């Protein structure tokens, strides 16, 4: 990572800067500074943001591989929410920390836990952009997670099989 | 066939289809979509799909009607109905019509994941259950009844083991009742296709129209009485084996159709237009000499060569008389167990009768005779008068004077408990002549009882 081909990490909405920098450091992804307009993605009936709309916006603004780091609640039309979405394979992905925060569940703020969840979702969506589907190994970062409990259960690493697939794909 | 489980999304709203296709693709499923129920049905007609997730409200045919169609056509597909709003009435309607479950849009990702996982698990169990039943049926009548210590039967068993592992077409030749279907089942059971079904088509019992429909299936309305679409045996084999019994009895037209299927591995249902890919292995059987039928122009030579890749010849029972005691004892045990009788064996006269018989109906005739003996006989031993060994009205039985004389002498000797003086008297010959005949035919006095 860190080369010109590596993904650009782009904050969307009021994403905490310190968390963004830590994620950038841990993943070796560069931080993008072009503004992403949230307004077209807003759905007033659902009071959420359309993740497909934001993905399209990211691809419009950035030429290379881009991963949006959102602080807002994301949805796709048939699901009540999504933690993230990605083109699979493709060059754009987005993840949200909105439902990764302990505060969302009425619990005290926990910055360390939020970071550990965010890094998992970031790697997970990145994996999708590389063409990886969900993995049956529950510890693999590519395992499917629809709740924070599942996010917490997995690790922030790719299993051997997924790593091998990434190696085979190059990079 | 792909290892991935397959899902068909049916919804008239593109955004819903796109979201779900994307979501399920990430989940690792093979996903297809249709924007209306008719399109969904034609997709279901062309390939097996594990799960359909259909919106209840669609223009034209709605989700419940689609569900009814899927159920009426007995497709092996689970269905989940999507509704726009929660309603007990809708849920009850969907479930009453055989939906696995229903979900309300927008779905909680975790709920959707659980519902789909459960539906897939039920689907998997249903398929597994069907395969296990088939295996059980195969096991109970497969290798177990390929009995015999004769060289001919050793050779047959060797051939089965040789050919089972490769995917070649097998042609089994043998007279009626020699056990051709048992050989086919044994080949299937020892083959890599054993976890898939073996479907049997008795070609001789079907008219030309019926056999076409039986082999290739038919579309609804293809002919009078075709009220529903029906899958043919090649489709039903689902990667397994198709056993075509009495292959010589099919018409030249069906031979042509069959040849095309064997070459192209595709079928078109009667009344249909869409080719459907099918994966199967063919085992054919005949009680006639196919090569002769080819010479007479009654069997296509190209089909014959395609079927005749590996031939197993089953000997008639009269050519392996030595196996009769073993087979008779096997059937005696089998039917004694089935009917809760306590037979322990055959008395000597009964066994001699069985050995002496010419068995024009082969093993099947022997089995029927033993089964009847278990019904009418008195435990613990089957006696010769329990055996309905009949001379057929016609057929290849040896009707020579020698055979008849031998059989008659055995019967009279049995009647007089092998007292040769009394037997000779009854036969109207002197004792020395009887003695020479006993030696000539190799007859031996019985032990008290013989359990072979």
In terms of topology, how is this protein built?
The complex is a heterodimer of chains A (171) and B (452).
Chain A: E1 8-12, H1 17-27, E2 30-31, E3 42-43, E4 48-50, H2 51-61, E5 66-70, E6 74-76, E7 79-82, E8 84-86, E9 92-96, H3 111-129, H4 148-153, H5 160-169
Parallel strand pairs in A: 1-2, 1-5, 4-6, 5-9
Antiparallel strand pairs in A: 3-4, 6-7, 8-9
Chain B: E1 6-10, H1 14-26, E2 30-34, H2 37-46, E3 51-55, H3 63-72, E4 78-83, H4 88-96, E5 101-104, H5 109-140, H6 151-164, E6 170-173, H7 180-190, E7 198-202, H8 208-216, E8 217-218, E9 230-231, H9 233-236, E10 241-245, H10 252-264, E11 266-268, E12 275-277, E13 281-286, H11 290-295, H12 301-307, E14 310-313, H13 324-338, E15 345-346, H14 348-356, H15 362-376, E16 381-382, H16 401-415, H17 420-427, H18 431-440
Parallel strand pairs in B: 1-2, 1-3, 3-4, 4-5, 6-13, 6-14, 7-10, 10-13, 15-16
Antiparallel strand pairs in B: 8-9, 11-12
Describe the structure in your own words.
The complex is a heterodimer of chains A (about 170) and B (about 450). Chain A is of the alpha/beta class and about 170 residues long. Chain A has one domain (about 10-135): 3-Layer(aba) Sandwich (Collagenase (Catalytic Domain)), CATH 3.40.390.10. Helices cover about 35% and strands about 20% of the residues of chain A. Chain A contains five helices and nine strands, in the order βαβββαβββββααα. A five-stranded mixed β-sheet of chain A has the order 2-1-5-9-8, with helices on both faces. A four-stranded mixed β-sheet of chain A has the order 3-4-6-7. Chain A is globular and about 40 Å long. The model of chain A has no long low-confidence stretch (mean pLDDT about 95). By secondary structure, chain B is of the alpha/beta class. Chain B has three domains: about 5-135, Response regulator (Rossmann fold, 3-Layer(aba) Sandwich), CATH 3.40.50; about 140-315, P-loop containing nucleotide triphosphate hydrolases (Rossmann fold, 3-Layer(aba) Sandwich); about 320-440, Helicase, Ruva Protein, domain 3, CATH 1.10.8. Chain B contains 18 helices and 16 strands. Chain B has a five-stranded parallel β-sheet, with helices on both faces. In chain B, α2 packs parallel to α3, α6 (about 150-165) crosses α7 (about 180-190) and α16 (about 400-415) packs across α17. Chain B is elongated. Residues about 390-395 of chain B have low confidence and may be disordered. At the A-B interface, β7 of A face α1 and α5 of B.
